[in-house]
Amino acid sequence: MSRKAVLPTWYYRQYPSDFRRGEEATLGILGWARRDCTVPLDEMALVLMHFWNVGFPGGPDWSENSPHVLVRQAQEYVGRCVAQFTRCMPPILKATRESGMTIVHVASGEDYAKRYPHYQRTCAEVNLDPPQKQPGAIRPRTTDMPTNVERYGPGWADFKDAPYDFPSIARPEGENELLCVYTHQLNSVLRNRGIWHLTYCGFAINWCLWHSPCGMVDMSRLGYTCGCIRQGVVAVENRESVRTRGNHDYAMWKTAHMFGFVVDDDDFIRAVQNTREG
User: Fold this and answer.
1) CB 254, CB 2: distance < 8 Å
2) Three-class SS of residue 36?
3) d(Cα 95, Cα 78) in Å, to the nearest integer?
4) What is the dihedral of CA 153, 56, 95, 190, to 10 degrees?
5) Which residues, in sequence order, are CB contacts of 234 under 8 Å at separation 6+?
6) How far apart are the C-alpha atoms of 238 and 230, rounded to whole Å?
7) CA distance 85 to 101
8) Interatomic CA distance for residues 210 and 267, integer angstroms
């Protein structure tokens, strides 16, 4: 008999609209609710996506004297990532590792993934071909659009030289932990294990964790249920949202309503620690 986790998940009730309110009919909907979902532990995975060592001990220097100081000015989220992940990830990872639940690390590129034997084992296991790349837009050589320098500042182009890696608090450890870069790799190793339920942590919930390879858009299209630990993700914020963490709040709604669920860290930890036979 398999061990099962009872996961108290948050979902969103996008009904009933109150059309007496006109264009604000959404004010009538019920909103957030919580529901226990029972999932076999061996059909679940914790997906740790795009944990970068920027700002962490041993990572690229992020002080005012950093050689990447101009890029630093555009990376408003680094301080929040360091504080949030340092506080929340150790107990999440400890409980997950002790439970035996599958952990999958997702790197943003092969340049640092290849340093880890976990990636070599993943590549050896993958039995699905990458999708054929489609031809893209036919663009003129020059277009009158805002450049990356205009969007992110004058130092952005040089940041590719920074030594990306995993921070020590979220580095691949056990031999049973997996490391992927591409969607077909993640799909393959999950199919090999019969896993369909994915709980994401990482950065950024409203950017990479939705849209990058191995993110929720790709995986939900392949039939996976995707969600996140509320305290285990950080959002990109803007000038208008940062004081209230408005983008993070929006991302919780979209993640739950479009992809599957949101769970709080304490509830996740208790669920994987207190599995039951069934």
Assistant:
1) no
2) strand
3) 25
4) 50
5) 77, 80, 81, 84, 85, 203, 204, 205, 248
6) 19
7) 20
8) 23
The whole-model pTM stands at 0.96
- Residue 231 has a CB neighbour count (10 Å cut-off) of 18
Domain edges within the chain: 39-129+149-277
Q: Which two tokens stand for residue 114?
A: 């290849």
Give the separation between CA 213 and CA 16, rounded to whole angstroms: 35
Architecture per CATH, domain 39-129+149-277, reads as 3-Layer(aba) Sandwich (3.40)
Report the length, in residues, of the chain.
278
- The span from the CA of 6 to the CA of 2, in Å, is 13
Place of tokens 């004010």: 27
Query: What is the C-alpha to C-alpha distance for residues 138 and 243, in angstroms, rounded to an integer?
Result: 41
- Radius of gyration for the alpha carbons in the chain, expressed in angstroms and rounded: 20
Q: What is the dihedral of CA 243, 247, 252, 258, to 10 degrees?
A: 170
pLDDT tens for the 278 residues of the chain, in order: 689 999 999 999 999 999 999 999 999 999 999 999 999 999 999 999 999 999 999 888 788 887 777 677 778 899 999 999 999 999 999 999 999 999 999 999 999 999 999 999 999 999 999 999 999 999 998 889 998 888 888 766 555 566 789 999 999 999 899 999 999 999 999 999 999 999 999 999 999 999 999 999 999 999 999 999 999 999 999 999 999 999 999 999 999 999 999 999 999 999 999 999 87
CA 250 → CA 119, 134, 247, distances in Å?
A: 33, 32, 5
DSSP H helices in the chain: 69-72, 78-99, 110-113, 117-125, 148-152, 183-193, 208-211, 216-221, 246-254, 265-273
Amino acid 58 reads: G
